[in-house]
Amino acid sequence: GDEATGANAVKLALEAPLKQIAVNGGLEGGVVVEKVRNLPIGHGLNAATGEYVDMIAEGILDPAKVTRSALQNAASIAALFLTTEAVIADKPEKAAAPAG
């Protein structure tokens, strides 16, 4: 139901930074996320070397405060949106047909 949908949205949001870091390093984001998910706690990808390491031992610190803050802000906006009686949004424009 709604809770499962919300939980999945949070899961995807938490995976997005790692996927992007992997892609920026020339790796496949989905593969990296699966690999990291199965590593011991505290282990992750060293994007500079492409190796999976103990992040703290290697001196790689996750910007957890930034991630936590972003998640809290997103939850706050979602709660506000759900308790609002009306929302105004821009109507998406139709894409023009390709020339030729």
TrEMBL record:
Molecular function per GO: ATP binding; ATP-dependent protein folding chaperone
Give one Pfam family.
Answer: Cpn60_TCP1
Q: Which InterPro entries match?
A: Cpn60/GroEL, Cpn60/GroEL/TCP-1, GROEL-like_equatorial_sf
Q: Which UniProt keywords apply?
A: Chaperone
Q: Which Gene3D superfamilies match?
A: GroEL-like equatorial domain
A Gene Ontology annotation in the biological process aspect, one of them, is:
protein refolding
PANTHER family referenced in this protein's UniProt entry, alphabetically:
60 KDA HEAT SHOCK PROTEIN, MITOCHONDRIAL
What does the sequence similarity comment in the record state about its family? Belongs to the chaperonin (HSP60) family.
Name of the protein in question: Chaperonin GroEL
